[in-house]
Amino acid sequence: MQEDFDAPARKRTHNLAHDLVAKLTQSILLGQMSPGDKLPSENTIVQEHGVSRTVVREALSKLQASGLVETRHGIGTFVLERAPEQGLRLNVDTALGVRSILELRMGLETQAAALAATRRTPAQLAHMREALDDYQSLLANNDSCVEADRRFHLLIAEATGNVCFTEIMQHLGSAMIPRTRVNAVERGAADLSKLGQLANLEHEAILNAIKRQDPDAARAAMWLHLTNSRDRFSPGG
Asked: Taking the complete model, does pTM exceed 0.70, yes or no?
């Protein structure tokens, strides 16, 4: 009988460890913890996440097995430099043009927006709002808003709770922002400031749908934004 009672407990521990691994992995992939950084102590993780020491130890063991961290006995657990990705081989710097990347993002980010609408936390929503406020301020000062634009889209990927979305978006890097890949000749007489304002109106529609927790509206708003971006920035399009 004892074995029957132990099985559900082991399953709960495994599920909690899986959730903790996902959260810590997100922090590492989003750059909130950099290579060489020391993870919080075991006691701190227990208190912050409300889990047992057993869960923390299992999660750290999984992170170590995945090559994201290493434990130095008597010192602590540290984030490792990530090895070059072997699974994803898209060379976004040379192989893919604006249209190709946007077509990929149309499939990826429409679903990410829908998931984010149902799973986002209040803190994640606040960070998205901050990214768009930064975008608007930079645009008003005629400064580059590429970083704020990229951050907004990464935050949506993070809010899915699915690390696969974050990894792919991280891999695309600044190449996901069309205007970083369109030169002056291709752009012609296009006013980037005006285009940036149009893009941010679309961003606001995406954010509002995520705020309302309306996945269908979020998916539609993201689709509209990316198709418009394709038309705005694709050479000859």
From this structure: no
The ranges assigned to domains in the chain are 2-79, 98-233
Average pLDDT estimate for 195-224:
95
pLDDT of residue 28: 80
Q: Please give the full DSSP string across the chain, using - where no structure is assigned.
A: -HHHHHHHHHHHHHHHHHHHHHHHHHHHHTTSS-TTPBPPPHHHHHHHHT--HHHHHHHHHHHHHTTSEEEETTTEEEEPPPPPPSS----TTTT--HHHHHHHHHHHHHHHHHHHHHH--HHHHHHHHHHHHHHHHHHHTT---HHHHHHHHHHHHHHTT-HHHHHHHHHHGGGGSGGGS--HHHHTT--HHHHHHHHHHHHHHHHHHHHTT-HHHHHHHHHHHHHHHHHHHSTT-
* Assigned CATH for 2-79: 1.10.10.10
Per-residue pLDDT reduced to its tens digit, 227-236: 998 887 655 4
Do residues 169 and 153 touch, judged by C-beta distance below 8 A?
Answer: yes
What is the predicted pLDDT for the residue at 135? 93
Question: Domain 98-233's class?
Answer: mainly alpha
> Cα separation of 95 and 110, whole Å?
23
Task: Report the Cα–Cα distance between both ends of the chain, in Å, rounded.
Answer: 68
